[in-house]
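Subject: Predicted fold for TIGR02449 family protein, 70 residues

User T.R. writes:
Posting the sequence so we have a shared reference for the thread.
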Amino acid sequence: MKSDEQLRQLEARIEQLIALSARLREENQTLHARELKLMEERAQLLKKNDVAKAKVEAIISRLKSLEQES
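User M.O. replies:
I've generated the structure tokens; pasting them so everyone works from the same file.
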């Protein structure tokens, strides 16, 4: 009897671990997808930042040239 009970407990624990493993695998996939999305968003923001920086630098150059013409 004792070994039967131990076997049932072991089976229950294995089922719990299988469920936990599946949940963690799903969570891991979700986190990887989120990471990829955030990396893409970061790349887009860096591009926008570069464009904005170039525009500001162009404006500063034009202002300096106008200042020198005066």
